Amino acid sequence: MQSKSVGWIQSWLVILVASILLPPLGLVLLWRKSGIGLIRKLLGSLLICGVAIVHLVLFFGLRFEVDGSAMRPIFYFGTRERHYEALEEERAEQKSLIPLASKSLSGDVEPDATASIGAESLAKVDAYWTDFRGPDRDGHYREMEIITQWSDGLEELWRHRVGGGYASFVIAEGKAFTIEQRREREVVAAYDIKTGLEIWTNSWEAHFQEPMGGPGPRATPTWNEGMLFALGAEGELRCLGANTGELIWRKNILTENQADNLSWAMAASPLVVDDLVVVLPGGSTDNSVVAYDKRTGEPVWKSLSDRQSYTSPVLVTLAGQRQLLVVTAERVVGLTVAEGDLLWEHPWSTSYDVNAAQPLVAGSNRVFISAGYGHGSALLEVSQQDHQFRASAVWETHRMKNKFSGAVLHEGYIYGLDEAILACIDVSSGELMWKGGRYGYGQVLLASGHLIIVTEKGDLVLVKATPERHMELARFGAVEGKTWNNPAIGNGQLLVRNTREMVSYRISP
């Protein structure tokens, strides 16, 4: 009897030790053991699975982030500390191999005007994708035809680690520019477009972080006439020489305009128009929208008192008037370029003050706007009579809700993510044509009559832009982990990044 008791204890001890040291083995032993009821086996399995998760977290760096719905986890391996260490090792190796890579400038570097506005300011060759979502900020790539046969994926040109944050790239003069989080600093980086090797960086101390999105800057830089305009998550605005990374001028747009940061940080990409750079600090005393002289950083005009949104301003022409199109947390407005005077407005308020999707010009006097959180979309018509402007809704619908991914317009139809599912609507009526394909809270571009989609989990997808039906043509994995960053296209290359890695594919023949 004692022997049986000892044997029983020993068998359970073996299962316990196996479950702690190697959970899968413990699970097998548990289910192979006789004389145990189903309920006990299920409860034991849950405990062993819990131990396995602890193993993955402690020894393999299992981590998770929430997706755009804030309801589902996205798992990945590797702590931020390990990622930063690997990134630093990679950059050090690049420096030792190639003298060109890289030059680092700290935030303490004094402005050097001679470094910025010389010969490089006149260089306009090979500069196409210079703004967030392309030259017109509409997500439409028009530079050249793209490859639409992806049966074996796309040719990968290079792949490297990258710092955190949700900015995209801009591409000009053989360089790709972005802004990243590296430990306790925000870093503007220039990469060689052919190799992905780092050419220069300019950084400063800043570390914005919030529970859902994590750390890092959100706003994509803007390139213009040899200058790069970069905005950090906490309001640091810098004008840098695009060839060298040297500082020309700097402002903190939140401090200077007595504005509070947004819950998910500054995300609106600076807009360069004529001799101005327009930003959205969201000050409450006629300094919600601010224009600085792009060469000196001196304020030129300030306008509105709205709490701001996460949507980037756009230069448009509506009802015959060249103007700035701005979506605040409260309304959509048109402003004059030279003075920032209000031309027209239309109310557009969303839950939690979150307007994040880019508006689209949908005709000579029409604008498509959209928002998530159950809000929907609308088509606005802007008219002018006796030098007075007004805006009114042509239609409104709940069939398209762009949460923080901009839609695209092609041949009279709008394609975009209705929350996490791709949809197509008729721009003239708002009628839903089709809905299909779950891509999460990813991003959408348009090129050569096709949709290029980067899913929230990092897949690249090619979809035919047709109102007839949802036609997914190809899909393959591009980057691992949560991907909220917009892709960018220039020099025949498609650039994709997230908070951990960046990759370039050949997209044109």
Structural class: mainly beta
Average pLDDT, all residues: 90
Q: Which spans have pLDDT < 50 for at least 5 consecutive residues?
A: 1-10, 112-125
CATH superfamily of the largest domain: YVTN repeat-like/Quinoprotein amine dehydrogenase
Number of domains: 2
- The CATH architecture name of the largest domain reads 7 Propeller
Strand content: 35-45%
Total helix count? 5
CATH topology of the largest domain: Methylamine Dehydrogenase, Chain H
The largest sheet, given as strand count, sense and whether it forms a barrel, is: 5 strands, mixed
Distance between the termini: 80 Å
Shape call: globular
Helix content: 10-25%
- Biggest sheet strand line-up: 3-9-8-7-6
Overall radius of gyration = 26 Å
Give the strand tally.
Answer: 38
CATH first level of the largest domain: which class? Mainly Beta
Keywords:
509 residues; mainly beta; Methylamine Dehydrogenase, Chain H; 2 domains; five-stranded mixed β-sheet; 5 helices; 38 strands; 15% helix; disordered N terminus
Give a summary of the structure in a few sentences:
With 509 residues, the chain is mainly beta. It contains five helices and 38 strands.
